Write a sequence for this structure.
């Protein structure tokens, strides 16, 4: 059976991965200055993953800080032989964001945090795009966490199935099936314009 | 319903996900997070510097008792091999002639490293020699004996020799 979605291209090149490993090794040897290039390189992906998972810019900022402080103090935990640094960081981010959001099954979006400027031809189309994206965010937030993990990592963080399997500790087939189900749920909710279960009302 | 104008749900989902991904690309951590990481890095650097100094301090801490114990042993062996009267004899004021060789009171390697050491004359109470395991005539324990000390600029005694 074909994959439900095209297999995304891994975001890291071999060269970057090697360089990450070298920097992580320097960090593990007690050279804190090696954190700066790693932070600049990976802060965006970690932050965006946490933001999409939690729906809160404040939580995403805290998680990003937690992840890189963890890297600073526990760089020896990273084993370059087991894979690139980026999925390892996202795995840590996943743990921290779950911990910070506690047992909440549904993320609560902070509308003020997630309202970037939108380039649209007309105010009407801008409003429509805004509403559609808002609906998508709320639908993602309403996904069960194990579906949300896979969907955010594959669809928004552009991680390969293999990377997601490593990050979430899953079999490759489980990643595929969870992604398929997550997408099916989203498609159903969005196509039918149904009330997303558990989502907070956007009307204020 | 006209299917040409209404794309299937999966396609609509892909479009919306692509739009969301595009929107997300603009998001970066706030400057406060950048600052927090910079502070954590700086703190780790300072901690590392302090840790780097600690072993040297400990080395000094342990080196001195070990050196003292070793030197006491060396002095004891050297002096026991000397004739007894050489040690207990009174100093001759008229002729200060240095006795054979310096006896190290610290490891020889440390003396070799101390290129700026110098020799100073000193009168040492005979009782003090007992601390080094040297035989002391009780009848003359109150007297002092002339020595020359090899010392470092910081005052640490590296070796001594008796002056007849």
């Amino acid at each position: 059976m074909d994959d439900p979605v095209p297999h995304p291209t891994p975001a890291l090149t071999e060269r970057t991965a090697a360089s990450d490993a070298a920097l992580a090794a320097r960090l593990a040897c007690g050279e804190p200055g090696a954190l700066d290039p790693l932070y600049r390189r990976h802060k965006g992906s970690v932050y965006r993953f946490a933001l999409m998972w939690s729906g809160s810019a404040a939580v995403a900022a805290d998680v990003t800080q937690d992840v890189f402080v963890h890297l600073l103090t526990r760089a020896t935990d990273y084993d370059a032989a087991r894979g690139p640094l980026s999925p390892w960081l996202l795995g840590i981010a996943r743990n921290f964001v779950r911990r910070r959001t506690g047992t909440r099954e549904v993320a609560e979006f902070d509308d003020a945090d997630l309202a970037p400027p939108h380039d649209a031809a007309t105010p009407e189309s801008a409003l429509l795009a805004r509403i559609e994206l808002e609906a998508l965010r709320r639908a993602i937030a309403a996904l069960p966490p194990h579906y949300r993990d896979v969907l955010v990592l594959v669809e928004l963080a552009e991680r390969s199935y293999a990377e997601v399997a490593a990050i979430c500790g899953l079999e490759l087939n489980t990643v595929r099936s969870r992604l398929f189900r997550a997408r099916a749920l989203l498609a159903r909710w969005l196509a039918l314009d149904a009330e997303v279960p558990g989502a907070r009302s956007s009307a204020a | 319903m006209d299917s040409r104008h209404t794309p299937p749900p999966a396609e609509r989902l892909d479009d919306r996900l692509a739009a969301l991904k595009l929107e997300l690309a603009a998001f970066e951590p706030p400057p406060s997070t950048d600052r927090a990481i910079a502070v954590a890095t700086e703190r780790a650097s300072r901690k590392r510097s302090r840790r780097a100094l600690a072993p040297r301090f400990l080395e000094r801490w342990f080196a001195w008792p070990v050196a003292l114990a070793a030197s006491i042993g060396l002095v004891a062996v050297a002096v026991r091999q000397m004739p007894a009267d050489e040690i207990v004899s009174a100093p001759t004021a008229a002729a200060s002639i240095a006795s054979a060789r310096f006896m190290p009171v610290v490891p020889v390697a440390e003396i070799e490293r101390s290129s700026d050491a110098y020799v100073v004359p000193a009168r040492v109470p005979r009782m003090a020699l007992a601390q080094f395991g040297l035989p002391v005539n009780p009848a003359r324990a109150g007297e002092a004996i002339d020595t020359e000390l090899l010392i470092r600029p910081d005052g640490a005694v590296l070796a001594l020799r008796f002056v007849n």
